[in-house]
TrEMBL record:
One annotated GO biological process: methylation
InterPro entries: 4pyrrol_Mease, 4pyrrol_Methylase_sf, 4pyrrole_Mease_sub1, 4pyrrole_Mease_sub2, CbiE, Cobalamin_biosynth_MTase
Keyword Methyltransferase: yes
Protein name: Precorrin-6y C5,15-methyltransferase (Decarboxylating), CbiE subunit
Lineage per the UniProt record: Bacteria, Bacillati, Bacillota, Negativicutes, Veillonellales
Pathway per the UniProt entry: Cofactor biosynthesis; adenosylcobalamin biosynthesis
CDD domains: Precorrin-6Y-MT
Gene Ontology molecular function: protein methyltransferase activity
Highest rank taxon of the organism: Bacteria
Keyword Isomerase carried by entry: no
Tetrapyrrole methylase domain ranges (all copies): 4-194
């Protein structure tokens, strides 16, 4: 029988935000994959673990070896359905069944932090990519949410949107380290966020 890849969403990261079903799978895992912080927070003694880095070829080799022996749980931040390793895993290991356990997306959590509903919002990513111009074009009443990185941080994105015609006084917020003790939320306007320092790996919300 082919062993299963279990992809478990751990939410923004804090233990209060992880679903019990995901936590159960993680605790029962013999082979466990995740980011270094996730492994620090959730791995238990006796588990064989592998930290996710940028070297996916090495991760692929490790997964191939362990899937020959048993099921593997892969922890991903947020929800597996939104810019996670899930598409890569499905493409790389088509012969193995995949079980997906949802998690609370950091985008959902960011909207909650600013007390704003997210229905109708367009979820995009500047994390290692740049969205198509049509997806970020200004429309009155439009809501956008972005994952950011250190190059395309909220200051970069705010300037990018202003150049696209978004009003400088558009409401915007940047949320960093969501659910952790060092969580930060900066809620202001595009003009002011264009000068915001840091917030590399964060969530930015824009409300037109």
């Amino acid at each position: 029988m082919d062993h299963t890849l279990i992809v478990a969403g751990i939410g923004p990261g804090g233990r209060d935000y992880i679903l019990p079903k995901a936590l159960e799978a993680i605790e029962k895992a013999h082979y466990l994959v995740g980011g270094r912080r996730a492994l620090h927070d959730y791995a238990k003694e006796g588990q064989e673990t592998y930290p996710v880095t940028g070297k996916l070829s090495l991760l692929s080799d490790w997964l191939t070896e362990k899937l020959a022996l048993g099921d593997v749980v892969v922890m991903v931040s947020g929800d597996p359905g939104f810019y996670s390793l899930l598409p890569w895993l499905k493409k790389k290991f088509p012969e193995h069944p995949v079980k997906v356990i949802p998690g609370i997306s950091s985008v959902q959590a960011a909207f909650c932090l600013i007390s704003e509903p997210w229905q109708g919002a367009r979820w995009l990513s500047f994390h290692g990519r740049v969205p198509e111009t049509k997806d970020t074009a200004y429309e009155k009443g439009r809501k956008l949410a972005f994952l950011t990185d250190y190059e395309h941080n909220p200051a970069y994105i705010a300037g990018y949107l202003i150049k696209q015609g978004w009003p400088k006084n558009t409401r915007a917020a940047a949320c960093e380290h969501i659910s952790y003790e060092n969580q930060q939320v900066e809620e202001s306007t595009l003009e002011k966020l264009a000068s915001l320092e840091g917030f590399g790996e964060s969530v930015m919300v824009v409300i037109g």
